[in-house]
Amino acid sequence: MTIKKPLIRIVDDDSDVLKAMRKVLELEDYQVATYASGEDFLTEDSYSLPGCVILDLKMPGLNGLEVQHHLKVRGFNHPVIFLTAHGEVESAVFAMKEGAADFLQKPADPLRLLEVVALNIEKDLKGLTLGFEERKQKVALLTPREAQVIKKVLMGLSNKEIGESLGLSERTVENHRAAAYKKLAVSSADELKDFSYFI
């Protein structure tokens, strides 16, 4: 199975920064997703896609370090590259100690940006091969009905709605869902995002 095209996520509250970086990366044929806040990124991102995230250190709401912490808790294993303004080197060093892959100083030099992104994409794809195989094997354990139920869960449907759409009782849906969660070794609908590519 081929791995999907890498996704570069850019998280910054400055719309001009988002536009400029998106333009540079898309000219190199990268797939890019931009988010105006850490909250939007944590809610909307598809974690299963390989790639990296470019994360602004200082933002209203959740700052970059807080977003990084949330990502670690959720098991987001793709490289995190921080964007830092002048005078934020101390925070950037702390971010590196917490597992950040690199940091870029604002305004990011286009050539440096492309160099850092290319390097981290390569690292991520190498590290993901095993993870993808493991997830594929886990999904292969699901019965056709369990896979149907999980697809509906990923669409955000409740057990009741899933039951109505598949002609099953809510209790039967619960049983299939519990069995699938056990096989996939997950405990919440949020963790299922990592398997969306295969189901």
Offer a few descriptive terms.
2 domains; five-stranded parallel β-sheet; 8 helices; 199 residues; alpha/beta; Rossmann fold; Arc Repressor Mutant, subunit A
List the helices and strands and how they pair.
Layout: E1 7-11, H1 15-27, E2 31-35, H2 38-44, E3 51-56, H3 64-74, E4 80-84, H4 89-97, E5 102-105, H5 110-140, H6 144-154, H7 159-166, H8 170-184
Helix pairs in contact: 6-8, 7-8
Structure description:
- With 199 residues, the protein is α/β, with parallel strands linked by helices.
- The chain folds into two domains: 7-131, Rossmann fold (3-Layer(aba) Sandwich); 141-195, Winged helix-like DNA-binding domain superfamily/Winged helix DNA-binding domain (Arc Repressor Mutant, subunit A, Orthogonal Bundle), CATH 1.10.10.10.
- Helices cover 53% and strands 13% of the residues.
- A five-stranded parallel β-sheet has the order 2-1-3-4-5, with helices on both faces.
- Helix 3 links the parallel strand 3 and strand 4 (80-84).
- It is elongated and about 60 Å long.
